[in-house]
Amino acid sequence: MTQKVAVAVLHGIGKQTSTFADKTSLEINNRCRDTCGDDIVIRSVYWSPIMQQEEDKLWQRLLEGGLMDFVKLRRFLIDFLADALAYQPSPSDRSAYDGIHRVFAETLRDLAQEAGDTAPLCVVAHSLGSVIASNYIYDLQADARKKIISDPVREAMGDTPLERGETLTLLYTLGSPIALWSLRYTDFGRPIQVPSPLLQQHYPGLEGEWVNYYDADDVVGFPLKSLNDAYSEQVTSDRQVNVGNIFGSWNPLSHLAYWSDRDVLDPIAEKLIQVWQAVNP
Description:
Helix content: 40-55%
CATH class: Alpha Beta
Number of domains: 1
Largest sheet: 6 strands, parallel
Distance between the termini: 12 Å
Order of helices and strands: EHEHHHEHHEHHEHEH
Structural class: alpha/beta
Shape: globular
């Protein structure tokens, strides 16, 4: 029996459907299938419903408040910016933060069941999803030293190496605003460790990477290696790509086009194949 590889995919800001990752998953699997068969197991971290109900309620109350110009633009801002604002925990309320991280924990539990308790883990995260992935992995890595994960999230977690983040091998951030979040910390903070510092206990010699994809026209995505020495060490490369069609590749609409771009999907699939081959000699 071969060792499978687990892939968790996180969407970004804005309204999403539960099928947001279907096309991307199909594209990745099609690229890998001739070599890996069905051993690339992809599951989506669909966190949007945690936010959407409250955002819809907020919008309805705002509409009742009085006349507003630029209604479509205002709705756009509610859908996009409110996710980022509401996600951050406050001293009195961390329900959104914990609710989203619980969805992440449940997805990793499903991956452990489908791909195996010690399956190498790849995370592909877009936009705000990259911040969520970074925060959740940071919490996992810090929790190994000091218990910081809340009870609601811990209840959704199993105790497998994959679910504890020990097998994290690959991280791909797409159009990531992590650089903006770094303003909250002294000298722009400390990044997560990729691959996991415990990966070698499970797969000696297995090499990982953190590739940060950004389009120069995407005003949400930024390079990361230049933030500080720690990011320079952990991020394998900032890879500038030109994503999108003729209508969006030259402007901020490029932020929405990473999922279908060959310059993003081809190298991700190639690395997944390399990892699969390494753990199935």
